[in-house]
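Q: Give me a protein?
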Amino acid sequence: MIKSDELAQVIIGCKNGDAGCFSQIVDMYASRCYGYFYRLTSNKDTSDELLSILFAKLVEKINTYRGGSFESWLFTISSNVFHDHLRSKQRYTKLLGERQSHLESEITEFKMSDGDTIDKLQIQLSRLDDETRELIMMRFYSELSFKEIAKMRSEPIGTTLSKLHRGLKKLRELMER
């Protein structure tokens, strides 16, 4: 364990933009913060993501540290990162629910000469995996941009485009049967 005067020097280095000092902070606290996130989420990927966000916030907010217990300050930020994640997840879930009901109403309101086509589309959409169905609904029924979808899903836009392309190809194949 690092002594408090050594920690103070590392923090001063961080405030001065010393990447090596940030690296020391990461080395000292990554496993404890990861454990904290993992206990809260029970998900390795989410814990990794939250840990990355935490250390990005640390870089951003290090100049707001005014002394006192560094661990308390760091875990306050950790707690805020987790709560931001929960709020984001709740907004996403709520938004998805709204989008699904919007999709259902649009499909029933949509006037198409061939009612069987709409029925077939609904059936084939239900055969897609949840992720693919979500992507298609967000893009075509909610008219969200690729950038908005990628941001909502916290993934690179290229990943979103690839998944949507594969999903549309799969839906097209199902519709042609």
